[in-house]
Specification:
Blueprint: H1 3-16, E1 19-23, H2 31-35, E2 39-44, H3 49-60, H4 65-68, H5 73-83, E3 89-93, H6 101-111, E4 116-122, H7 131-134, E5 137-139, H8 142-150, H9 155-199
Parallel strand pairs: 1-4, 1-5, 2-3, 3-4
Helix pairs in contact: 3-5
C-alpha cells in the first residue's frame, strides 16, 4: 500500500470512529493530513502511561502539569474523558510492540472513550499482554504485514552456521597447536630423564 492509500484509509477510519495501526510506517508522516480535519496529539511512545496521559490532557486543554502530576492514572483517564466529551481527539503514537500488559489495559479503557481515536504503528511482534488492545485496532496495511511474516528469517541460521564453522576451525587449529605443545613437552621430559640417567 502506498502512502496516499494509507492516508485515505486512516482518514476514513477516523471519520468512522475506528482505531488504526500501521505496519512498519511511522505515524508522524500522516499527522499533517489528520490535523487538517481533527485535533491531533502526537505522543510518539505509548509508555509510560501516566506521563502520556498528562501530555495529552495538557495538549487539548489549559490544565497545568503541576495540577496533573498529583493525579493517579484512573483520575487522569476521567479528566481525559471529560475533556474529549465534546470534541474528537486523535492520539497518534509509534511502537505498539513495546506496550506491556498493564499499559495495554490502560489504553484499552481509553479506546472505549467515544470521541478518542487511536492511531499507532508497530514494527515487529507485540507482547502477548497487548493482544486485547490489538483487537480494537484495524491494521491499515495488513497485506504488507502478512507478506513480511510469511518470509522466513534465515539470519539466525546463517549466524549459527558461521559460529559452527568458526568453532570447528578453532578446534582444528588448537588441536594442531596442542599436539605440538604436548609433543615438545614430552620430548623435553624424555631428554631431561635421559640426561639424569646418563649423569648417574
Amino acid at each position: 500500500m502506498n502512502k496516499d492509500e494509507i492516508k485515505d484509509v486512516l482518514l476514513r477510519n477516523i471519520r468512522e470512529g475506528k482505531n488504526s495501526l500501521l505496519w512498519q510506517h511511522h505515524t508522524a508522516q500522516y499527522i499533517e493530513a489528520i490535523e487538517e480535519k481533527y485535533e491531533v496529539v502526537y505522543i510518539n511512545e505509548p509508555d509510560p502511561i501516566k506521563a502520556k496521559l498528562k501530555d495529552i490532557i495538557m495538549a487539548i486543554s489549559h490544565e497545568k502539569e503541576s495540577t496533573l502530576s498529583r493525579k493517579t492514572v484512573p483520575e487522569l483517564k476521567k479528566i481525559l474523558e471529560s475533556k474529549t466529551a465534546r470534541k474528537k481527539v486523535v492520539i497518534v503514537f509509534n511502537n505498539f510492540e513495546r506496550i506491556t500488559a498493564s499499559v495495554a489495559r490502560a489504553w484499552l479503557s481509553i479506546s472505549e472513550f467515544e470521541r478518542v481515536i487511536l492511531v499507532g504503528s508497530f514494527f515487529g511482534r507485540f507482547k502477548k499482554g497487548a493482544y486485547g488492545l490489538y483487537k480494537v485496532f484495524e491494521v491499515v496495511n495488513e497485506d504488507d504485514m502478512e507478506e513480511s511474516f510469511d518470509e522466513v528469517d534465515i539470519t539466525m541460521f546463517v549466524f549459527a552456521g558461521i559460529s559452527v564453522l568458526v568453532f570447528l576451525a578453532f578446534l582444528r587449529f588448537s588441536m594442531e597447536v596442542s599436539f605440538k605443545v604436548l609433543g615438545a613437552f614430552w620430548l623435553a621430559v624424555i631428554t631431561f630423564r635421559t640426561m639424569i640417567f646418563v649423569a648417574r
